[in-house]
Amino acid sequence: MTQFTPTTSTETRNADLAALILRVSTGGLFVAHALMKIMVFTPAGTASYFESLGLPGFLAYLTIAAELVGGALLILGVATRWIALALAAELLGAAILGHGGNGFFFNNEGGGWEYPVFWAVTLVALSLLGNGAYALGKRD
């Protein structure tokens, strides 16, 4: 029979650092992607792109808001588990609806689904880690 062994302080500290690194890097990437949609492609241009995929244009504005606010909340470490899962769902939608027909590799024309799926998996791992100790939100 396997006996439960509590984690050591080193394991806890490593998990807290892993959560911090994943939160800040992933949150920063989301903020950067939102800013690209705002400053480079423009919100109206992003909405037009969504419409070219057969999606309602208003989803572009929701996507921009989710990436900007969600990214900031990840960086701060607020509601990490829920924000990471919501953003993973957004990325799976992007993989299927935006990149699904372009093949696997992201360097394919139009970008394949490899990158958004990898990012979604990273977010699921982050949701399992939670905020960690180095966050504004309570440790979960």
List keywords for this structure.
mainly alpha, DoxX-like_oxidoreductase, DoxX, cell membrane, transmembrane helix, 140 residues
Provide a descriptive summary of the structure in words.
With 140 residues, this protein is mostly helical. The chain has one domain (18-129). It is built from five helices and no strands. The chain has helices at 9-39, 43-52, 58-76, 80-98, 114-129. The radius of gyration is 17 Å and the shape is elongated. The protein starts with 8 loop residues before the first helix and ends in an 11-residue tail after the last helix. The model has no long low-confidence stretch (mean pLDDT 90).
User: The biggest beta sheet, please?
Assistant: none
H/E series:
HHHHH
Roughly what fraction of the amino acids lie in strands? under 5%
- The number of helical runs is 5
Q: Helices and strands in order, then pairings?
A:
Blueprint: H1 9-39, H2 43-52, H3 58-76, H4 80-98, H5 114-129
Helix pairs in contact: 1-3, 1-5, 2-3, 3-4, 4-5
Short description:
With 140 residues, the protein is mostly helical.
